[in-house]
Amino acid sequence: MIYHPQHSHRLFAISLVGLLLLLTGCSSTPPPKQSHDNICYIFDHDRDWKKAAQRSYKRWGTPPYVLLAMVHQESRFKPHAQPERPYFLGMIPLPRKSSAYGYSQALDGTWEEYKKSTRRWRASRSNIYDALDFIGWYNYRTHKRLKISRKDTYKLYLAYHEGQGGYSRRTYLKKPWLLKVAKKVSKRSRMYQKQYRRCA
Q: What total number of domains does the chain contain?
């Protein structure tokens, strides 16, 4: 068989197009801001959100409306969300105060623990399937350790923010602002729950 450079280039181009199509088909897009207050609009925007939420629910037991209420609070549905970077003298960038990243705002250490526990070594915090699976996994551990219902958004969020050890020590009682945030998340969860009944 005679080698032709043209054949090699053509094969590379076909492979590249196929890879791009595959990646496009597997990626999800963040819902627009105007849809944030309606879980059905979020699901209509991109079916991956509904599939990811239901998959996590089936695996770990946290309902989709709780999962999405927590994601809204943590990242406002932004896949690459990070804490703001402080600047010295307004121009010299300093290290971020936290390693929180992605939809779930999972910390580096907790994310590594999740990947090890679930053997999802390629999981990404900017992937909605992985992010919702992480929140479901974390809430499942909270449920097992602290006996908190996986439908109790208020307590789940406090444990998510403070860590299960912090929740046990009731560190949240010294943070009135956090209690207000947890109430907001719980309120959004109830709103999503009513909407979810119509589009589940």
A: 1
Other Cβ atoms less than 10 A from the Cβ of 45: the count is 18
- Note the pLDDT of residue 196: 96
What is the C-alpha to C-alpha distance for residues 159 and 142, in angstroms, rounded to an integer? 7
Q: Has residue 108 been placed in a domain?
A: yes
Question: Nearest to residue 51, comparing CAs of 136, 135, 128?
Answer: 128
DSSP string, 124-156: -TTSHHHHHHHHHHHHHHHHHHH---TT-HHHH
Q: Is residue 19 part of a domain?
A: no
SS3 93: strand
**Which parts of the chain fold into alpha helices (H)?**
5-26, 39-45, 47-60, 64-75, 108-118, 128-146, 153-168, 176-199
CATH number at residue 48: 1.10.530.10
Question: Which residues form the domain of 73?
Answer: 32-199
* Cα(165)–Cα(39) distance, integer angstroms: 31
User: Which pair of tokens denotes residue 12?
Assistant: 């590379």
**How far, in Å, CA of 155 to CA of 158, rounded?**
5
What average pLDDT score do residues 41-66 get?
97
Within a domain: residue 18?
no
What's the pTM? Answer: 0.84
pLDDT in tens, 189-200: 999 999 999 988
147 located within any domain: yes
Give me 18's structure tokens.
């196929």
Contacts of 101 (CB under 8 A, 6+ apart): 80, 81, 82, 108, 111, 125, 126
